[in-house]
């Protein structure tokens, strides 16, 4: 527990102000170890109990100042301290204690017997324990039971849960949803706000959604502390002001033929999936979810891969004309009698995204082991990743060919033109794109 600070008087506490530095100011007021007055840059003041619970440092909100007086804050902090010592729930301790004190005060004021007040107090305590508050972690689990059905692919489902598990649960996971404050959200987001701005922004939105669900389910009331406008935007910089360009690291055109040659020498299903991904300029999820019944005319003159809308980012069916090199990759693949997937995992299920990414990481490590710089993005100097290969393809079309821009965008399954243009253009340049993909394979093969 923190050291006991000098015990301040009410007048001294009322005079405490923000010190002008970045973030919130915290003033120890004494009386109870760990009791602090938090002052925001905008002048807001509230009580915080800082304590170590199960080896983790926690900040527990005890109410705003001056609505909660210094004396009451000390009583609440003492309730929390006692709860920690006995192993009880510290998040409920001061609420139960305050309710019991209020009942006792009313009982004595009305001349009721002490035993009646005691029984009422015990009733409040037992009722609070029986109606255990919903923690944020449990709220996430309940919310995602229905939310995850909205996502089109498994990767998005995992990303949604992963960001909450990685960044939110360690800080607010055990906090009851009805006691999560703006300060809690700020503490959760601040560590990654500048370095992983896009992830932090998505995390904020996901926390907001979970807390909105908790409000509808009557587990909490009041404003949503994770709301941005008119709330967090007052204490945190705008994402657009701190976000750095975070394009996926792409393989440089000058390195592509050498990289391609190295890839073809690697064995394993992950390497073949990456090879097919490159030839088709597709996304990882489209490749990993590919099924044999999506392919037609593999032995004919017009081999085709038709990706259903359910697996496409834009929600529209996408046709990929296959080059002879792409067909050769498919022909060489072993088929699993137990799996419908073209690129299947060892147990027959869908290949994981990490399997494909690992191939590129292993290739980079192999290059470094030889004393080479490896496969780095021209701008960021970061190691190229599978999704960045789509940028490599786009650069090749723009810099090395005379194919029109719209054709390249169609090959990448990007939305091209306005709604009116798309309504009148029914074709997808399929045969012209077939020549494009053949030339792309030729370029890769040097």
TrEMBL record:
Q: Does the keyword DNA-binding apply?
A: yes
Q: Which UniProt keywords apply?
A: DNA integration, DNA recombination, DNA-binding
User: Origin organism of this chain?
Assistant: Frigidibacter mobilis
Show the Gene3D superfamilies listed in the entry: 1.10.150.130, Integrase, DNA-binding domain (3.30.160.390), Intergrase catalytic core (1.10.443.10)
Q: Does the keyword Electron transport apply?
A: no
Entries under CDD domains matching the protein = INT_P4_C
Family from the record: Belongs to the 'phage' integrase family.
Q: Name one GO biological process term.
A: DNA integration
Occurrences of domain Core-binding (CB) (ranges): 134-215
SUPFAM superfamilies per the record?
A: DNA breaking-rejoining enzymes (SSF56349)
Q: Name one GO molecular function term.
A: DNA binding
Residue stretches making up the Tyr recombinase domain: 246-437
Protein origin, superkingdom: Bacteria
- Which InterPro entries does UniProt cross-reference here? CB, DNA_brk_join_enz, Integrase-like_cat_sf, Integrase_catalytic, Integrase_DNA-bd_sf, Integrase_DNA_bind_dom, Integrase_recombinase_N, Phage_int_M
For this entry, the protein name equals: p4 family integrase
Identify the Pfam families for this entry.
Answer: Arm-DNA-bind_3 (PF13356), Phage_int_M (PF22022), Phage_integrase (PF00589)
């Amino acid at each position: 527990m923190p050291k006991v600070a000098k015990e301040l008087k009410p007048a001294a506490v009322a005079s405490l102000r923000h010190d002008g530095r970045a973030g919130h100011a915290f003033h120890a007021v004494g009386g109870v170890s760990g009791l602090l007055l938090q002052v925001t840059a905008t002048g807001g003041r509230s009580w915080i109990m800082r304590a170590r619970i199960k080896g983790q440092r926690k900040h527990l909100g005890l109410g705003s100042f001056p609505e909660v007086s210094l004396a009451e804050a000390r009583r609440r902090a003492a309730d929390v301290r006692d709860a920690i010592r006995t192993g009880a729930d510290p998040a409920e301790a001061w609420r139960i204690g305050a309710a019991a004190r209020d009942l006792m005060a009313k009982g004595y004021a009305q001349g009721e017997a002490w035993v009646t007040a005691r029984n009422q107090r015990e009733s409040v305590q037992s009722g609070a324990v029986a109606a255990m508050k919903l923690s944020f972690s449990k709220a996430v689990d309940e919310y995602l039971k229905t939310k995850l059905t909205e996502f089109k692919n498994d990767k998005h489902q995992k990303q949604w849960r992963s960001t909450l598990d990685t960044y939110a649960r360690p800080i607010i996971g055990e906090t009851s949803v009805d006691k999560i404050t703006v300060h809690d959200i700020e503490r959760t987001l601040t560590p990654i706000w500048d370095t992983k701005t896009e992830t932090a922004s998505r995390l904020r939105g996901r926390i907001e959604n979970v807390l909105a669900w908790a409000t509808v389910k009557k587990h909490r009331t009041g404003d949503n502390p994770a709301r941005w406008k008119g709330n967090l935007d007052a204490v945190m910089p705008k994402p657009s002001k701190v976000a750095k360009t975070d394009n996926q690291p792409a393989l440089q055109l000058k390195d592509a033929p050498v990289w391609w040659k190295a890839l073809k020498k690697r064995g394993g299903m992950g390497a073949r999936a990456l090879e097919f991904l490159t030839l088709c300029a597709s996304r990882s999820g489209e490749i990993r979810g590919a099924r044999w019944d999506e392919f037609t005319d593999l032995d004919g003159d017009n081999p085709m891969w038709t990706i259903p809308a359910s697996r496409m980012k834009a929600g529209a069916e996408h046709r990929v004309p296959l080059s002879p090199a792409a067909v050769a990759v498919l022909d060489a693949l072993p088929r699993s009698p137990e799996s419908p997937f073209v690129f299947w995992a060892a147990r027959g299920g869908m290949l994981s995204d990490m399997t494909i990414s690992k191939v590129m990481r292993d290739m980079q490590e192999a290059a470094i082991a030889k004393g080479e710089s490896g496969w780095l993005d021209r701008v960021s100097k970061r190691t190229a990743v599978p999704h960045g290969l789509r940028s490599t393809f786009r650069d090749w079309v723009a810099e090395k060919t005379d194919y029109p821009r719209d054709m390249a965008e169609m090959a990448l399954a990007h939305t091209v033109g306005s709604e009116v243009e798309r309504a009148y253009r029914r074709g997808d340049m399929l045969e012209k794109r077939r020549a494009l993909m053949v030339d792309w394979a030729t370029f890769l093969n040097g």
